[in-house]
Amino acid sequence: MLVKKISFVRPNLLEEIPDIEDYNVDVFVELESGYTYTVVIATAKNIVALMDKEKINFSEPGDPFIIVRKLTKEIIEEAVKAYAENDAYWLKFYHFAGEVDTAVFNRLQAEHTEYLKELDELDNS
Amino acid sequence: MTKKVNIVIVSLFLVIFLIGFRLSYKNSGKFRESIRIALIWATVTLSPLSVETKSSWFSDAEGFTPLAHERVISNQELDSLNDPNSRVILVKIGDSAPSVPISPGRGQPSQFPTPPSGGRLGRPVFVPKYRIAPKIVDPGLGAAANRAGAGGGGENPEFDDNSPVPNKEQSQESKTFDYDYRSNDPKNKKKSKDQCELDENVKAEKIEIVYRIKESPALVREAERAGRDQDAQRSLNNLIEQLSLGNQNPGIGTENVFKDVFELRGKNRARVYYRKVDGKIEILAKSVKSNQQKVINILKKLYD
User: Fold this and answer.
1) Which of A31-35, B76-80, B275-279, B293-297 has the lowest mean pLDDT?
2) CATH number attached to the domain at B208-303
3) Would you list the domain boundaries of chain B?
4) Domain ranges of chain A
5) B268 and A56: CB-CB below 8 Å?
6) If you write DSSP's letter for every residue of A33-99 in order, what string do you get?
């Protein structure tokens, strides 16, 4: 899907980032549909820094990050365009992750279990 | 003795018959014909005696007669059932595919007991529904040692939850647990001298929080919307708590939105907007990711 506009909480945010290899930002992505998706883009180094900050050995559960090498305009645009492909599936996934009810996953799991059961029955017949 | 008497009687009958026959046909001249008829009559008369005599000659080989042969098989079967050391082969019937070979081959006698046929009453044959699996003797490992059975294919998974964990592995597990979680537990956490002073100072100088969200119905509505997400609500509370303790960079980071308004960002979509006025913290708005831009736009209208 075509990316119409990429913006941040303030216009000159990228220029003011102290370390573009160790930071994370909220990015607003407006698509041609007119809807604006919000995703968090972080550097790989920043993921480690957050674990150090929280003194834990894993990235704590929560909103997923789009991970980039550096927080530059070009890299962010490249990443956002990649996530906007295929009807913006992954952009939607990263935007709505955390708001999906567990019942949806349970239903998917039940459907998949039923599918596997049918396969087993076909194998045994 | 009886045999000799029979032979004598038959011989007498034969002689009397020949004499009588010869006298009756004396004038007709058919002497040869009378002799032949006499021999035929004698043969017919003696044949039952001959059969009876034959059977008495082979009295020790009774198995050669059909009736005697069947009786022998029946006795052998009964003997084999009574013998505890004998092997009994169980045969499944009523199935299209026999589980054991019933016929050993063309023209060969069957060694297996068969159901009665031809209206003759026979001994009932024991026919089990299923073959009985051989009983495997436990070599001393106990019932829980291999529930799946030898070679797999049992109902239970092959791994054993009851198997004891070596002490070495147990100690490693405890260490990992301590490292990951207990070190973060504030109750058990070992603190350096500087850390203790910092924490105490934060608690002593807890910053006063002033909520100004209710001044804007639009921001109240958006805050309520954010609060419906329970994970986000917990994260919102945590962010404000940390801020009141002096931590101005909790969660995944703080961003200056405009002028003196800052945004606290939690991992679970939570966003808190605040500013510092006269040493107090004013909470201006709350949001989640989905209404973040809308809240920022409202704040800009109100405070920019």
Assistant:
1) B76-80
2) 3.30.2310.20
3) 208-303
4) 3-100
5) no
6) TS-EEEEEEEEHHHHHHHHHHHT-SSPPSSSPEEEESS--HHHHHHHHHHHTHHHHHHHHHHHHTT-
For residue B266, list chain A residues with Cβ-Cβ distance below 8 A. Answer: 62
For residue B220, the one-letter residue type is: V
The ipTM is 0.91
CA nearest to A23, candidates A80, A69, A75: A69
Q: pLDDT (tens digit, 0 to 9) for every residue of chain A, 125 residues total?
A: 899 999 999 999 999 999 999 999 999 999 999 999 999 999 999 999 999 999 999 999 999 999 999 999 999 999 999 999 999 999 999 999 988 999 999 999 999 999 999 999 988 88
Check: CB of residue B226 under 8 Å from CB of residue A99.
no
- 8 Å CB contact of A62 and B256: no
Dump pLDDT digits (tens) for B139-173: 333 333 333 333 333 344 444 444 444 444 444 43
Q: Among B64, B68, B132, B148, which residue's Cα sits nearest to residue B99?
A: B132
Q: How close A101 comes to chain B (CA, Å)?
A: 11
Residues contacting B150, CB < 8 A, separation 6+: B136
Is A37 in the B-facing interface, judged by CB distances under 8 Å? no
Contacts of B296 in chain A (CB under 8 A): 9
- Exposed/middle/buried for B230, CB within 10 Å: 0-12, 13-18, 19+? exposed
Q: Which residue has the higher pLDDT, A111 or B60?
A: A111
* Residues of chain A neighbouring B231 (CB-CB closer than 8 A): 62, 98
